[in-house]
Amino acid sequence: MSFEVNEETRGFQSEVRQLLDLVVHSLYGNSEIFLRELVSNAADALDKLRFLALADDTLYEGDQELGIRVQYSQAGGTITVTDNGIGMSREEVVDNLGTIARSGTREFFNALTGDARQDAQLIGQFGVGFYSAFIVAERVTVLTRRAGAGEDDGVSWESDGQGEYTIHNVKRRRRGTEVVLHLREQAREYLDGARLRGIVHRYSEHIPFPIRMPREGEGESGEEVVNAATALWARPRSEITDEDYREFYRHVSHDFDQPLAWVHSRVEGALEYTSLFYLPRHAPFDLWDANERRGVKLYVRRVFIMDAAEQLLPRYLRFVRGVVDSDDLPLNVSREILQENKQLASIRAGSVKKILGLLEDLTGDRPDDYALLWKNFGRVLKEGVVEDAANRERIARLLRFSTSREDRRDNDVTLAAYVQGMKEGQRAIYYLTGEDFDAVRTSPHLEAFRARGIEVLLLSDPVDEWLVAHLGEFDGKPLKSVARGVLDAGELGAAPAGSEAPVDDAAGAALAARLRAALGESVKEVRVTHRLISSPACLVVDDGDPGAGFERMLRAAGREVPRTLPILEINPAHPLVARLADEADERLGEWARILLDQALLSEGGRLEDSAGFVRRLNGMLLQLLG
To answer: What is the set of domains in the chain, with CATH numbers?
Structure first.
């Protein structure tokens, strides 16, 4: 009999209660996944024990035969999944079964729509693991003991999934975890050995530990292994079906959806290792959490070493899932050792090439799938231009952009396609950066380029300022901002007849000097522009100065950045600017401030003194109205 102490009843974290409700009501149409998730969790617990036992083999407690058992009782209406893995302490039970301690939780719930089919996909992306048990169970009991703990340190956890759970200490001789599902009446169809075996074969054949079930049939007794119990990645590719690959992805990623693509390879020679990498269909909700550790699983000779081994891949490939299994790394390898390991550097370089090759194949063979990947992970992949100088050109060819051409689809233009479509005599790849895509798309900086039919890349991701700074050129064509430096009108070629009004450069220069004096320290310079056709003014950045977006990123990172003064360019052909030449100096100052503020607003910037702008504008309107 169990020895019980410290019994208490606790309420689930609010997010857990909400998730439980969603799981039961949104995933009921795919209820058999409960067994896949519980077996997957059990396999993870076995992996963790085997890894920790490398340093302390007493954790085996005399039992090194690792495995999983799936049992059922028709009389009791229960299914039991048992492992002899690492087990859990009381604190771990509370943390793992009563709390969702992960980033992106709020964003996940905000993304739910109420549509069961659509939300089922979102729940799969978030990962529910243990909570899938409540799809079929009206009550769940968990008995567990952490390996290495005393027999009196076992823990019992029980809940009906309605908002509370009870937890208490029990006397438990065996290490590991036992999950008992007390099935709902409508789920008793799973109390069938053949049905359970079929689910194991479908979803868990790849689990590298034996899954045992009671033998069935007249005169049969004992147990039998019902899965292959070999590491999928170690099997010959000719023996692995696409469905095998998909189910292993669900195990390694805890994603309910299918992968977008995968690549499986074996490297032999001076360095031997196997890799299996997957590209997900959807981005996890915590993709942008800088504190979230990401990476693939590392194995050494089929022994699990660590989860999220970020040293195996650079950060810009942090969305990739999968495993790397090395024959050469030491079994006692640690994260610290990995940082300086030359063999790992070779594995990392080879892995990057494999993944970039997979992405390149997608762009050619399955462009629609690549478009989906770019939508979800394009911002991450752009970081590779900054981080990975060795593969910068390959990554640049994978990039996709929106442009100023109306006949191009958004986020569908490659740099190669841009270069192929350049106007005769065009020497540079033009781009415009900004915080907001709509502001970039309608920016006055594009006017002279649109009039001449010159395409401009529209960049509004936070990483884009870094991207263009590190890329520099493509296919021998320099990247050039349309909002930076002096624009050489001759470089753009002649505009169509009638598209631009004649400009009196001398009169414009005189007005620019007066405006510069009126604006004082607010601007670096005021000059006549050749960028504008229908707008009165715009702001540009001098060559060598950081852009506004770059400054914002540095400040967000806690860096002290001296303020860079903008250059105000005016269009003397615009009626408003032309009228200013006749204004007295006292009124010109007010108009100058309004022009400056309008130019800032037109590029999506924020006014430092919005109340002052409104006050000045209202004052000028009152004067105009008499």
So the answer is: 5-228 (3.30.565.10), 234-392 (3.30.230.80), 400-625 (1.20.120.790)
